[in-house]
Amino acid sequence: MSRQRADSQDSLGPDDEEMPYSDDETDDELQQDEDEDEEAPPTVPAAAGPEAGWQVKANDRDFCKLPEFKKKYFLCLKKSKYSGNAIKTYKYNVLTFLPLNLYEQFKRAANLYFLALLILQIIPQISTLPWYTTLVPLVLVLGITAIKDLVDDLARHRMDKEINNRKSEVLLDGRFQETRWMDIQVGDVVRLKKNDFIPADILLLSSTDPNSLCYVETAELDGETNLKFKMGLKVTHESLQEESQLARFDAMIVCEEPNNRLDKFTGTMNWRRDKYPLDLDNMLLRGCKVRNTEECRGLVIFAGADTKIMRNGGKTRFKRTKIDYLMNYMVYTIFVMLILVCAGLAIGHSFWYEQIGSNAWYLYDAKNQTASYRGFLSFWGYIIVLNTMVPISLYVSVEVIRLGQSKFINWDLQMYYSEKDTPAKARTTTLNEQLGQIEYIFSDKTGTLTQNIMAFKKCTISGRTYGDAKTTDGAPLEHGKPVDFSWNKYADRKFKFLDNHLITCIRSKKDVEMMEFFKLLSLCHTVMVEQKEGELVYQAASPDEGALVTAARCFGFVFLSRTQDTITISEMGTEKTYEMLALLDFNSDRKRMSIILKCPDGRIRLYCKGADTVIYQRLSPNSKHKETTQEALDGFANETLRTLCLCYKDISAAEYAAWAQKHKEASVAMTDRDQALDRVSELIETNLMLIGATAIEDKLQDGVPETIAKLAKANIKIWVLTGDKKETAVNIGYSCELLTDGMKIHYGEDVNGKLSDRMTRRRNELRRDRNKKVTEPFFTEPGKNALIITGGWLNEILCEKKKKRRRLRLRRLGKRQPPSNPQDGQPMDDWEKELRQRDFVDMACECSAVICCRVTPKQKANVVSLVKRYKKAVTLSIGDGANDVNMIKTADIGVGISGQEGMQAVMSSDYAFAQFRYLQRLLLVHGRWSYIRMCKFLRYFFYKNFAFTLVHFWFSFFNGYSAQTAYEDWFITLYNVLYSSLPVLLVGLLDQDVNDKLSLRFPKLYLPGQKGSLFNYKNFFISLFHGIFTSLIIFFIPYGAFLQTMGQDGEAPSDYQSFAVVTASSLIITVNLQISLDTSYWTFVNCFAVLGSIAIYFGVMFDIQSAGIHVLFPSAFTFTGVASNALRQPYLWLTIILTVGISLLPVICIQFLSKTIWPSVGDKVQKNKKKYELEEEEEEKRRKPPAFQRGGRSRRSAYAFSHSRGYADLIASGRSIRQKPRARPELRESIREVPQAENI
């Protein structure tokens, strides 16, 4: 049975509604906390205290350059601590590109190795190969990588230049002048106009709105397109309207230091011998966009790198794949093997020379060198000869394959979102195969899983439910058509509703309760309305409010206008004005809102809407339809709709007058004003009469539940990390089927208790042995648990906030940190804290679903890093706002959702697309293919180089270990570049075991990537032994054939050069046919590459061994006529065929046996590929949308629980009402709505 929600105020733990900031908290805030803990009341506001070191003087650029504001940045050099407004994300400039890029490339061990090798080849005494055999591939590698880096950095340059050169108007020399963003400084007064991006973190001074309101769109910050309002101080708004007034403005702002807290700002403005408090409502943050405000003026507080959006960016990390790390370790292994082999051969040469070479007169070379010295030279000679064991072309080939795979992602039309004209974009080319190894996905909610669009779906009125497809007579329809709202000129054309019967009832005006229902929706809200070009524009405190008012509008109850004391609506074409007596707004404790109105007929009525858990407690015993409404609410909850109960109460004039007096007294209370107002509100919100309930759908993006289900089958765990309230996140968890009825949900207090118990038990059991681990699981039924934890509890569990506070206090007192009480279950030292974090990760990973809500951007990143650290798992983060950037950068793979939301997350991501559902294709198709291709490529690449290089090793036993090569020099140069590169490159680019549809149909095919089973040290040593076997066959069969031979013409082509040609020919045919055996997906290009590589080899060989080229370059081409002479002998062709056959026959047998006796999941799918493809085609033909299945869950509204405080204070103050109301022009037929979410 699922655990019921416990209200945060009833718990002794952290407040679930509060967004904590762990180590992001500023010292002045923590000092306040310490003062409160020590029961010493704070005497000075935090921001105004002596520790608040951030001071800004208006219209004074020189103030920031004073010596006291300078800091050291290099040796004794100092610069201002105030950042300029220019941003820099590029890595190179014209002067630094070449040295820096070469430095970065030579940090790669293989490049440095080949540079050393090139130097060795220049030394005549030890050079066994010409220098160009190493120089050509090295220059190719460095050049291709440098061009790629240059292209990437030029894109960053262009982006930085575009942003830094945006224009804004800055007050300079007494007038506003157009200035580039990069030239804006702290202390400047800036003027912004409608649709301008905000260039820095700015204190709003005044605007063209009579109340100094400014509406901003925060899509770049949090991915939400809903508008938020900001408000200037009354004193600055009234005094700073003209240029001359702004030029004389000389206030001093004292505030907190720059930090990454998006939800808080604390400061004080000192002006005209008075102090004015500042908070986040007064700030316009960089990255936001001015909307619905003609003009506003502000003062720059933070610029450039100090702004909150840049502070939330997190540290840019260089990401590398698991295969990259593995490949480097394998290259080190090969290098060690190379050293050992060369040392062994050098020792062999010393002994050989001592025993044989020095005694053979025909081997005398006139060099009086000792055997040891000759062995030393032989060692370096073999280092050069066997250098192809460490393949330099490997890195170039890997880069080419990754580039191609990135292009395939960009070109995938099934990941193209036509509505927004947004294709998928691989913003990096280095992480593709990592997409096939993901184990954990960390997802944001708003804008990532959801569309952040609310839609009115159903309602229940007087015990009758409406919303299913019905005729005008109420008869159910299987396939209903949307209701025709053409009779209502104010209806929103985008609004869809299927129940025609409801419209018939409304238009008949017979049902009084129904009329009251929609009248309540049009009156009981805090929506603000503006008139723009003859249209009504709604500004709502949340998308839910906007959806309800829009629904009422479409059903004929149109909210038209409001003043401080009145609300005007159109009731089925009749305009009526209600006098507003009181407005009791939502908050997280009340979970409801009420409005008290004086109707046109003189009656006083209270309308109330809220969560059913609080409304049912306040209903009158005479209220009807409670049971039927409850049943409807349960049904709505099963469909994961956000529910809200509506009720009313008639109030007598005397009752209202008595209550109003109490309300007035509470509203002017100097202490605990909010609590006093809540208590007074309770007095009037009693004996309510239930009308019905609404059901709103928080629209998920298309395909989200299916995507999550498919990824779960691929053993990928999805965690949701969001800043939203707990109830909202839980509701979406059920909607997207991340949470199910059978799961047992564990909240923060449960988790903390279990972890504390584990810590206490561990202390009792492990007092003597710290290395002993407690391994029993936390839950008895694994797979049936879900963890839902808030940011406050996360800090409590990980001991983050306490750590910071304790450290700060001890630093100030100069004391050592005291140990924790062993009985409290809290960590006593860093070792225990690490164990507690590990326990938390283990517990979370035992759960099928994890939802972290009310978490900060930094906490999101911390959760990701904990899983990476303790599970060594490959992680992916996906989000759409600036608050997800840190998480995206921390994960192994970062995915940004692009489209109508902000682009901040996209700019920091590795991959970007428009819809969450494309994630399954990115991972299960592109990721899996990329992983399989890269593994197959690497296995084969190591094999072909071992087979090629170790022939020299076997040859050394017959040449006195003299470092003589077994092949012609040009063959060695062109082997990896021309003769064997194309087929394996095409396998790395095009190969696929099954097609994309079967990859999605069988998610289990993804499991080998998570286990890393297709490329590891086992596969590496298999490739090594396969290469050793092939090199043995390729050397010794031709050697045996050449030992005692005679040609048909009486000649004996058993010379070294003919042997080299036969060996090389056998090798080329063998390795090209071997890649054919490993190819799963044949195209014309693959076939052409294999046959073409063999043909190119023979063509080039005959050319470079011709007499003509020898005449031109006699020293470079010494194998004159060898190929034509040797390959005209039939028995040498028989030797080549025999060598190739014996090399490949064991491979064919092993592959046949493994697929027959021990088939993998992939082998089974491949075997039945045709059958599955036919089934897929038939299924597509008969596929229909699935019918909705009701569950057995009974949950409550997430809307009332999660809804933030609205605009009640603003409305009641009258500041939202224009001071000079104008006559309302004739409204257009379409009314535009701009919903507005909670303030940040």
From TrEMBL:
State the active site. 444
Give the way it sits in the membrane.
Multi-pass membrane protein
Where's it found, cell-wise?
A: Endomembrane system; Membrane
Swiss-Prot/TrEMBL keywords: ATP-binding, Magnesium, Membrane, Metal-binding, Nucleotide-binding, Translocase, Transmembrane, Transmembrane helix
InterPro entries documented for this protein: ATPase_P-typ_cyto_dom_N, ATPase_P-typ_P_site, ATPase_P-typ_TM_dom_sf, ATPase_P-typ_transduc_dom_A_sf, ATPase_P-type_domA, HAD-like_sf, HAD_sf, P-type_ATPase_IV
Listed binding positions for ATP are: 444-446, 545, 586, 609, 642, 722-724, 854, 860, 883-884
What is this enzyme's catalytic activity, as reactions? ATP + H2O + phospholipidSide 1 = ADP + phosphate + phospholipidSide 2
Where does the chain bind Mg(2+)? 444, 446, 880, 884
What is this protein's name?
Answer: Phospholipid-transporting ATPase
What organism is listed for this UniProt entry?
Astyanax mexicanus (Blind cave fish)
